[in-house]
């Protein structure tokens, strides 16, 4: 079964109704084109200096998902969902600065001179940044794109669950992922056969400080 459902929903409905779903219809398929569309919309998320230091591996082949299953601690959504998307942080993402800012010049959003200065500054700072700071920035950006991906999926009528419970080292080994990339999370996406259960949230008064920590 393959479909191309696009259920555009009210934004507040999307954020209130999104749940982490762990039970999916294994017969339901999302087309490769729609998965590309979802990723394209997800990458409208912000990132530091617009460097977009993320990469994705889409697992939608049944045999490959079976290979992924033990790496993800045998979580059944890996094989039941339409696809699983591995979000990877690119530690050398700043090397894309020239390409990214060249497109901004082409679009008329900045001049060639401004582009050259920005790229020089970015390369000068990030190429000398310590590995922990660079990694932390990449992880933040990948968190932003991951959340946007899940909201985009919900707006289109699909369900998701983010998974941190997997073996990053085994993932890298099994799929020949170089040390340039940091596995951040896996995201299962598909059609739920069982709704995600409601969860509570701490009161804002318990987690918010004004103008400093009291």
UniProtKB/TrEMBL annotation:
> What is the protein name for this chain?
Nitroreductase family protein
**PANTHER family registered for this protein in UniProt:** NAD(P)H NITROREDUCTASE YDGI-RELATED (PTHR43673), NAD(P)H NITROREDUCTASE YODC-RELATED (PTHR43673:SF3)
Q: Which CDD domains match?
A: MhqN-like
Q: Which SUPFAM superfamilies did the record assign? A: FMN-dependent nitroreductase-like
Tell me the Gene3D superfamilies matching this sequence: NADH Oxidase
Its family remark reads: Belongs to the nitroreductase family.
UniProt cross-references to Pfam families, sorted A to Z: Nitroreductase
What is the taxonomic lineage of the source species? Bacteria, Bacillati, Bacillota, Bacilli, Bacillales
All copies of the Nitroreductase domain together span 15-191
Keywords, A to Z, come to: Oxidoreductase
Organism of origin is Paenibacillus agricola
Per the UniProt entry, the signal peptide is none
């Amino acid at each position: 079964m393959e479909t191309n459902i696009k259920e555009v929903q009210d934004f507040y409905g999307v954020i209130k109704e999104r749940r982490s779903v762990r039970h999916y219809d294994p017969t339901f398929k999302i087309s490769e084109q729609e998965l590309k569309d979802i990723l394209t919309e997800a990458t409208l998320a912000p990132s530091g200096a617009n460097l977009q230091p993320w990469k994705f591996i889409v697992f939608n082949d049944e045999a490959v998902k079976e290979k992924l299953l033990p790496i993800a601690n045998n979580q059944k959504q890996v094989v039941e969902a339409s696809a699983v998307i591995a979000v990877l942080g690119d530690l050398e993402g700043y090397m894309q600065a020239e390409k990214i800012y060249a497109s901004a010049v082409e679009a008329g959003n900045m001049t060639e001179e401004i582009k050259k200065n920005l790229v020089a500054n970015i390369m000068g700072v990030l190429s000398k940044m310590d590995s922990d700071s660079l990694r932390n920035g990449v992880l933040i950006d990948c968190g932003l794109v991951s959340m946007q991906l899940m909201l985009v999926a919900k707006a289109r009528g699909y369900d998701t669950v983010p998974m941190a419970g997997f073996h990053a080292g085994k993932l890298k080994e099994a799929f020949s992922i170089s040390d340039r990339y940091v596995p951040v999370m896996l995201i299962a996406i598909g059609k739920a056969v069982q709704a995600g259960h409601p969860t509570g949230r701490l009161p804002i008064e318990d987690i918010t400080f004004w103008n400093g920590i009291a």
